[in-house]
Amino acid sequence: MTKALHNTASAKIQTSRPAAKIAHEADTLSFMHRKGRDAGGGICYWNVDATGHFGKDCDKGHELAREYLDFIGRHPTNGATTLLGCIVNDMCRLRQEERLPSRNHLTGVEIGFLGEVNRYAATMVAVVKTMGKSEGGAE
């Protein structure tokens, strides 16, 4: 009886590992959640209650913005390109539904969130503008 020198019946084929699936932002970010079927499904992009104390609410907004920025920094996918617009849309929707007595459309939470995102954007613009320039900032 002869043995086959190249028996491939039990050979394992090396395949590349599938990329790790990125968790949906609604399952990751604390200020978002998936809506139940009874609510029509979809995503609630802004589920944040304001306390009515502007400074405290601004601090909370800054914290939530850093959470958002960290998420999009770790997961710079095409889905992240529209995420901020969805968040802002739900911010406005939520506050319009509340009919705030101050007649303001946003609370300190939203102002703080948007201010922090703006601060990071402005910082990145400054960094990009200074890249490639000689020391001292001269072109």
Note the main attributes of this structure:
mainly alpha, two-stranded antiparallel ribbon, 4 helices, 2 strands
Structure description:
By secondary structure, this protein is mostly helical. Helices cover 48% and strands 3% of the residues. It has a two-stranded antiparallel sheet with strand order 1-2. Helix 2 (54-74) crosses helix 4. The radius of gyration is 24 Å and the shape is globular. The model has no long low-confidence stretch (mean pLDDT 80).
Q: How far from one another are the termini?
A: 81 Å
Q: Strands of the biggest beta sheet: in what spatial order?
A: 1-2
Shape estimate: globular
Count the helices. How many?
4
| Regions with little confidence, pLDDT below 50 for 5+ residues | none
Mean pLDDT: 80
**Helix/strand/pairing class, anyone?**
mainly alpha
- Strand fraction equals under 5%
Radius of gyration from CA coordinates: 24 Å
The beta-strand count equals: 2
Note the run of SSEs as H and E: HEEHHH
Portion of residues within helices: 40-55%
The biggest beta sheet reads:
2 strands, antiparallel
